[in-house]
Design a protein that fits this description.
Mean pLDDT: 92
Helix content: 25-40%
Strand order of the largest sheet: 6-5-18-17-16-7
Bound molecules: ligand MGD, molybdenum atom
Radius of gyration: 25 Å
Strand content: 15-25%
Structural class: alpha/beta
CATH topology of the largest domain: Rossmann fold
Shape: globular
Low-confidence stretches: 1-5
Largest sheet: 6 strands, mixed
């Protein structure tokens, strides 16, 4: 991968303005001008997240405002749709002019900046170029490659979480009818830990709260999320909570922009008067990986308080709905404060202060994202969050409960609709019955499993339904080599990216409609449904003319692939594509909570999928909410070692980089950086902007190095460091995934940093 060399001098000036507000407005305008989108952009944006009729923002999974707010948008959502709606096109002439070897030298920014893909392409090894191919021939290439496999398990079907529910359902149906559960997805890299922990503790893989609960809660605990950049519409909820007097505790090694002040994204009156609202009442900075100890400390403090105030623990709730309480209390009592302080990196006084906020609040919500999940002990940490919630009966009532913040706009819907390499038996039974197929029962491969199987020659066909697998996955050179082992790689995409250049012996690029675009099928204009972070399902309808007349919708591409690879299939693939209502009718029969899908999804705000845990019904082995009692992990880095967390800048969407700036962290023109504690820098003789070499050491002892990064002194605990994904995936060893969730450990990479020679 080549880096985009920024022409301008890097700058670092700590940011003192509120989040969102005019800085965001200016950034959007610059972006619209650059993308030449001043005409259609704003018009389309006004229709985004609109009840009745608009399209769902393809950005993050934060729910839409339920009170009919007509401009529920944010800076990054606007950039994200504009990026899709760009007028730039990358067609056959472009590919005729550039070999793949040549394009491989381009930066990721330059690749995507060529614009929207316009027609299907096939890799021609003779000329090392992508050349046009007809849709039927493209499907036939896939069909032939599948026919040559010894087993369907030699194929793997990746999804990135933007795929709509209907396409998702068809995609997993195709994989299972072919005979494999190899359905890796981006969840394997983000919220697998949350799903597994919530499933084990509460019998549901999802959060239980909705936006109304956010509006009613007394205390919000926001853990390991950079909301101002990655879920900016959360700022609205934080500001509103602050104004009505709720407590807001941010728990993050970095004090991110959302943890100070904001001008809420759509509040133009406040923008005009520069009136910011505070969005925090307490900031707690644990060390990287220290959250579990911190939560344990909070629980310990609650128990201590219960000694003189019996109401500190909700004994009635615990007695009626939970199991494992006594063991958990004993564990908290047995864990010494000294260990809690050392492992969390937070003093007892601060932990007790956070615990006091918690025990004084009648209703509390805990919300979290990747800072909690991408760790070895991600599952245990999420369970510790649930333990703490259960102590005070913060579940199954208004204003209280767990609220994970999902990533991609439909990543939660993907799981609901069957993307799961470990499907449960009941789901497979219904799929078999309704769809008349024999789904395989053995568990399939996830993201890491797929990469390893490619290396062993056991996975030979890879389909990427959206996303940018080559760059998103850990251990970049290892992942590249794995993809190059494949017989066929198929990428269904909107824009050119690295995953098209790192390909199998045969390769296809299949361009699809984006979410903003009109989807015409025989049965008329189609809409697809998506599910947000809070289990609301609603329709999304594209409004723009497609970027090219040769694009197909994702359901149509899947149907084409399926029909080619399953010649005797009795699944009515083309019939489904003609009218997505037909797909929804089948989904209604297979999926829990989707009864009467076609009618309910057309209600003004869509519908909410039933959440049993919310009703205090627990599909766990005990039929109760289960406390856990995991030992605290040792997260304190050895002498000289730093715990490095990889994360996003403000100006990127996962592997898509919009610019080299990170406004809220005060950075301009620099991505090849590492944020460090000033003391840790001094100790190593490193000054601001100095060039450094960063070496990670994997569990198996292997090392990986990134050279000539630049050090930035930052307000981060000692022993901790941070920098940007996807570049830093080169430091993440393929074998370093969590034994609890199989998630790559992207937030705790053990590194040493030294001045470059
Ligand atoms: N604009 C924009 N929006 C996005 C995305 C994007 O790339 N751009 N990506 C989407 C996707 S797919 C996802 S999954 C989400 C990701 O949303 P985030 O989880 O916010 O993603 P990251 O940028 O990885 O930031 C992780 C945060 O966790 C903190 N952190 C790191 N280590 C620890 C730790 O040990 N403990 C705690 N408490 N905090 C820690 C970091 O300081 C940082 O604030 O955002 C989604 N939304
Ligand atoms: N080190 C490190 N690595 C990480 C993470 C981290 O925090 N640290 N985070 C992980 C997480 S949480 C995630 S979710 C993954 C992200 O992994 P992915 O979801 O695989 O990656 P994206 O960058 O979101 O994918 C961008 C590409 O999607 C395609 N695309 C955009 N819109 C559409 C569409 O409507 N349809 C189709 N078919 N394609 C479309 C475009 O071609 C674009 O190039 O990265 C993971 N990798
Ligand atoms: Mo994600």
């Amino acid at each position: 991968m080549s880096e985009r060399a920024s022409q301008e001098q890097p700058e670092f000036r700590p940011y003192h303005h509120p989040a969102a507000g005019w800085g965001a407005a200016r950034s959007v305008t610059e972006f619209l001008v650059r993308e030449r989108e001043l005409v259609d952009g704003p018009r389309a944006i006004m229709r985004m997240n609109h009840e009745n009729g608009g399209f769902d923002c393809p950005g993050c999974a934060w729910p839409d405002d339920t009170k009919g707010l007509h401009l529920d948008i944010c800076e990054n959502g606007i950039k994200h749709v504009t990026w899709e709606m760009t007028r730039k096109r990358v067609g056959a002439e472009f590919f005729a002019a550039h070999t793949v070897a040549e394009l491989s030298e381009w930066s990721d920014f330059e690749l995507e900046d060529q614009g929207r893909l316009t027609e299907p392409l096939r890799y021609d090894p003779e000329t090392d170029r992508y050349v046009p191919v007809s849709w039927p021939e493209a499907f036939a290439i896939f069909g032939r490659a599948m026919a040559e496999l010894d087993s369907p398990d030699q194929a793997s079907f990746y999804t990135s979480g933007r795929l709509g529910n209907e396409a998702t359902f068809l995609y997993q149906l195709m994989a299972r009818e072919l005979g494999t559960n190899n359905l890796p997805d981006c969840s394997n890299m983000c919220h697998e830990a949350s799903g597994r922990a919530l499933q084990a503790a509460l019998g549901t893989g999802k959060g239980t709260v909705d936006l109304k609960d956010w509006e009613m809660t007394d205390a919000l605990f926001i853990m390991g999320v950079n909301a101002a950049s990655n879920a900016p519409r959360m700022l609205t909820s934080l500001a509103e909570a602050y104004r009505r007097g709720a407590q807001i505790v941010h728990i993050n090694p970095l004090v991110e922009a959302a943890a100070t002040r904001t001008i809420i994204p759509h509040d133009f009156a406040r923008m005009a008067t520069f009136k910011a609202t505070r969005t925090s009442t307490l900031n707690v900075q644990p060390r990287i990986g220290g959250d579990m100890a911190l939560l344990r400390g909070m629980a310990k403090a609650v128990f201590e308080e219960a000694e003189h105030d019996p109401k500190a623990v909700d004994a009635e709730f615990v007695e009626r709905y939970t199991t494992g309480f006594d063991a958990y209390r004993a564990l908290c009592e047995a864990t010494p404060w000294a260990e809690i302080e050392r492992q969390s990196g937070v003093s007892r006084a601060v932990i007790t202060a956070a615990a006091r906020v918690y025990s004084e609040a009648d209703r509390s919500i805990f919300s979290w994202c990747l800072g909690i999940t991408q760790h070895e002990h991600g599952v245990d940490t999420v369970r510790e969050i649930v333990n703490l919630l259960l102590l005070r009966g913060n579940l199954g009532r208004e204003g209280a409960g767990p609220s994970p913040v999902r990533g991609h706009s439909n990543v939660q819907g993907n799981r609901t609709c069957g993307i799961d390499h470990r499907p449960d038996e009941a789901f497979l039974d219904r799929l078999a019955e309704v769809c008349g197929i024999e789904p395989p029962r053995a568990h399939g491969l996830d993201t890491i499993g797929t990469i390893e199987a490619m290396h062993r020659g056991e996975v030979k066909v890879f389909v990427g339904m959206g996303g940018n697998f080559a760059l998103a996955a850990p251990d970049t050179p290892h992942t590249f080599a794995a993809l190059r082992e494949c017989e066929l790689t198929v990428q269904v995409s909107t824009k050119l990216n690295r995953s098209h250049l790192v390909h199998g012996k045969q390769a296809l690029i299949l361009p699809c409609l984006g979410r903003t675009e009109k989807d015409h099928q025989r049965g008329g204009l189609q809409a697809t449904s998506v599910e947000d972070s809070m289990s609301m399902v609603h329709l999304s309808r594209g409004m723009k003319r497609p970027a090219s007349p040769h694009l197909l919708s994702e359901p149509a591409i899947i149907a084409g692939l399926a029909a080619a690879a399953l010649p005797g299939s009795r699944t009515p693939w083309q019939h489904y594509v003609e009218d997505y209502d037909r797909i929804r009718d089948t989904m209604a029969q297979v999926l829990d909570g989707f009864e009467d899908f076609n009618r309910r999804v057309r209600l003004p705000l869509g519908f909410r999928i039933r959440q049993p845990a919310r009703e205090l019904v627990f599909h766990t082995p005990s039929g109760r909410a289960e406390f856990s009692t995991a030992a605290l992990p040792d997260v304190v880095p050895a002498a000289g070692v730093l715990a490095l967390g990889t994360m996003r800048s403000h100006d990127q969407w996962n592997t898509t980089i919009y610019s080299d700036d990170d406004r809220y962290r005060g950075i301009k023109n620099l991505r090849t950086l590492i944020f460090m504690n000033a003391e840790d820098m001094r100790e190593r003789g490193i000054g601001e902007f100095d060039r450094v070499d960063i070496t990670s050491t994997a569990r198996d002892g292997s090392t990986r190095t990134l050279n000539r990064y630049q050090a930035i002194p930052y307000d981060i605990p000692r022993g901790c460091a941070a920098g940007y994904m996807p570049e830093m995936n080169a430091l993440c060893a393929i074998g370093d995934y969590s034994t609890q969730s199989d998630q790559p450990i992207m937030k705790h990479v053990s590194v040493t940093v030294e001045p470059s020679a």
